[in-house]
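quick one: guanosine-5'-triphosphate bound model?
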Amino acid sequence: MDRYNTDDMIFALATAPGRGALAVFRLSGAGCIAAFAPCFSNREKLLAAASGTLVFGEIKDIDQVLVSVFRSGHGYTGEEALEISCHGSTGSVTLMTRLLLESGFRQALPGEFTLRAFLNGRIDLTQAEAVDEIARSGTALTQKQALSRLDGAMTRRIGADRELLAEAMAAIEVQLDYAEDEIGGDTSFPYEPIEKCRADLDRLAGTFGAGRILSEGASVVLAGPANAGKSSLFNLFLKQERSIVSPVPGTTRDYIECLCSVEGIPVRLCDTAGLRQAGEEIEMEGIRRTGQLMAAADVIVYLLDASETSGSEALMQKERAEADYPAVGKVFVWNKTDLSDTSAPEGFIGLSVATAEGFAGLSHTLALMLQAGVDVNAQTVVQSPRQHQALVLCVQALDRALEMARDGVGLDAIAVELKEASDQLGFICGELTGDDILEQIFSRFCVGK
Ligand SMILES: Nc1nc2c(ncn2[C@@H]2O[C@H](COP(=O)(O)OP(=O)(O)OP(=O)(O)O)[C@@H](O)[C@H]2O)c(=O)[nH]1
Ligand SMILES: [Mg+2]
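yep, here:
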């Protein structure tokens, strides 16, 4: 890893930049306590402090600070480390940064603390990735999932499969090393553990769709004829006047995307140009883009204006949307019920954005649809594309091994496939991960992590 030198002392501001009650600096690396002590008023106490203790003191002309002490073998990175809490002013942070640079510390690169924790064996790679996922989690649900992976849930989840695979490989190894009459015991091919392992890992790989929704947010597109109330509903979801609303049909042209949470599920909500035949060139381009967004969405929320649309017209539009976007989830909404006496046609949810009547029901229906793709109770969900790819390659290698066994191919060739499968599982936890890949993973983190 060219960028990450692991021998020197590093520091970073671990809290978000800007004004706040506190700013926390993280320092790590052998010798960092002795390097920091000369500028600290309570020097002797700091030098003698045990791991996990706090020392209060002053940094002359800069700030009063509270220092948490971690001796080598303890703390986040497993190296000698300090966390310094100072006041969260720009002045404090600037002066502290200058002081630490002058004291022999280097500014940490993105993810460098977590990389050191991984290299020092404090966490495995799935836990390191969970640190980043927690930092990015936007809702309670994503936080809960990432937290379970931080606790090592992914490694435990594949642990049983690794054992099954090791068992099968050992059985084959014995058959390769000894003649049949020397073994004495069972010499049949270990189909059962391999098939069991394959099925379980395939199931785990299948949770990646849900993992994608949790990490990126589900794509929900508000669509429908001009003036149906899409932008009004968009603003109601976001609880802010984000999109322009007006009685003029064709108000929205460029689509607008915002992140929001629908009953805890992260959603990328998109307001789009209303669908209509009329309109000039720019609006037509907006409408063309709406079509693209609808085709790529997880769910389309299709709105109609109840005061302008007949029941039969509504059903026709519903049928057309069903036919045009067969693979996409759809919720049909009968909006502006406050202006109309016609009850919602079959398959439509009644809503008045103006009075918010029906909004809770719509949110709930949407959440249920998204949850069908996201098993919120699933113990472990694969969120990292890297882990997903390794699982897929592992399952493919197991498939090849099973097929070869059925075709009567020699055990030595099968052993190669099983080794490949086992390596892919090792790769998930970081045991067999090359430096270039580590660099790729950690460089995505934020500084201070
Ligand atoms: N009475 C009533 N008016 C509504 C309701 N929802 C939207 N409106 C009004 O309908 C008009 C159009 O609303 P928009 O949200 O701009 O509609 P849109 O679908 O985004 O329209 P385009 O961007 O032109 O496609 C505005 O005057 C809104 O105030 C509703 O539930 N009840
Ligand atoms: Mg609009």
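The longest strand covers residues 20-28.
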